[in-house]
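Bug: token stream looks shifted between consecutive jobs. Job 1:
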Amino acid sequence: MKILHVIPSISPTLGGPSEVALNIVSALRECGVNAEIVTTNYGGAKPMNVPLNQRVDYNFKTDREVSVPVWFFPYTSPSLKEYIFSWQMTNWLWKHIHNYQLLDNHYLFSYAPSCAANLARLKRIPYTVRTMGQLTPWSLAQKQLKKQVYTFLVERHNLNRAAAIHCTTSAEAENVRKFGIHKPTITLPLGANPPMPISDAKARLRQKYNIPADTPIILFLSRLHYKKRPELLLKSLVQLKNSGHCFHAIFAGSGESIYLADLQNLVSSLGIEQKVYFAGFTGGFDKDLLLQGSDLFVLPSFSENFGIAVAEALAAGLPIIITPGIQISSDVAAAKAGLVVPGEVEPLTEAISKLLSVPKLRQELGANAKRLAQTCYSWQPIAQNLASTYGAIISGSPLPQVTKLNESVMKSALI
């Protein structure tokens, strides 16, 4: 099989979606599927420094030397960052799309997947769509008018003509139905790579950030965006400080410069400068060090269809605290791998206080977290199920019951 994955950008600064595309393609290739990526060089504040208009072996795991074949094309819409238009990608897709048996489109409301879907229909190439959590009520309410117009003109038609919609949870599949789309859905989770073992991670992390050896570290590892609600965590940290808790919080992730400045000002106004450190974007060894050296992970997002950062924390054996808007929260609660609390200051503060005060509970939740990740969020079985789905679509056969397979795997994790 020859499969083309289409995504607006795979810049590491954009977080989960980039990780998903790269890891899926890598795992598929290990399963014998000839998978490639086509994307733009959009990188947020500045373009990615990558070769353009040619296939390159893109290295995305600097500590593991993993690479996947990627076609990068220049984008030409700096004023419309969500759209990320690329005329050269359009031209390439028109000329080469027939060389692939199926397209796997990542994301909605953006040029690359929309263009690919239209061209695929013209060339009679089947395609699937990943909604990436963009059909949750919260997400649809953001820039609502723009999305309503785009849906009417483009997106609903693209979804209704897809061979299948890839959802990562049953809740995401339900969002697809509520949006009025009745194409077949496949429900497969995403994966998380366990970090490279660092035997003295806790000591090295504290040495790096000049944190006392006996101080627990709270980790926020995600893109710094108001959707992730770092402000909520900061307000909880004030209460923890006032109640006498000893801790240090590290916020690791990139974000818009104006928003980052607002967060820094909030930290100053709250008087917790000595308790908080903004580490910026981290990857490779530095990311593994954070995951293994911290004591608990907190992500109080409004909405996440899956939450790659959450899965990575689970894989590292970190006890986690998340909100119900993260759609794997039911898995986390059932596996007793963390605490799921309402997205409000008081319950979040209480949950963090509980884990800071009871090291034994952190250990129990962390062990359950690692077990859940190993059982349910491993890339290889996910890729194998996805390859079976691709094969069925290409041959015109009924889709395999991957939802039932996933449910049985989940049950085994909870035994």
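Job 2, same session, no restart:
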Amino acid sequence: MIELADWEEDCMNDGQNDKKPGQEESQVSGERLSRFLAHAGVASRRAAEELISAGRVRVNGVAITTQGVRIDPQQDEVKVDGRVIQAVSKHVYVLLNKPVGYVCTAHDPQGRPTVLDLLPDEIRRLRVYPVGRLDIDTSGLLLLTNDGDFALRMAHPRYSTEKRYEALIRGWPTEDIMEALRQGVDILEDDGQLYHTSPAQASIVRRDGRDDCWIGLTIHEGHKRQVRRMLEAVGCPARSLRRINIGPLTLQDLPVGQWRYLTPAELQGLT
């Protein structure tokens, strides 16, 4: 199963310096071999690259040890350790209302429940994986698919898919706080570097009891824990956070923990 970090890195690097041996850059086509292996569920992309480097992958009978080679999944025969690898034949697109307490990965070393646990076996057998991530303590709209091109497109910064969140905070934010969120704030990333977020849409949604309120934030980026870190930066840490939109998609009346397929119209609206 493909790991999320692999896909995020793949989004940034896909198509760079990849070609068949002796092929000019303008003629590059097909699918990267390591990505094909990841799509087929052989291993994560990084592990697939290690298989290639070790000479364990053959294409049309020829051992491949060079990274970046592209293949035609419909024409080329790919084997790993002598076993023929089949391309995914059926693409599925799933919208899930993720509950708090589930992690967005295929397998968790700590034994925590994963979002795949919420899907039936017939969907899991198609090797779906999450598009992007929601933190374990964040709920809401999550997409899963086995279509690598769709996943890359949705995650790639150049397509700037809007994502809307609602956050429960203590108190009532001042207009200065709301304007800071709209203009962008400095957040501290895991590597210790400061990142200034892009402008966001920010609004007060409604009160919650006497002392708390829900605010809405719409962003185009996907930095780790970005919304939580933005709210912490302005002194309004999120007590609860949920994603309610990705582009035109909404949760509508989908209960927490439930899933459904995307409709053809919804899929067309995203692509």
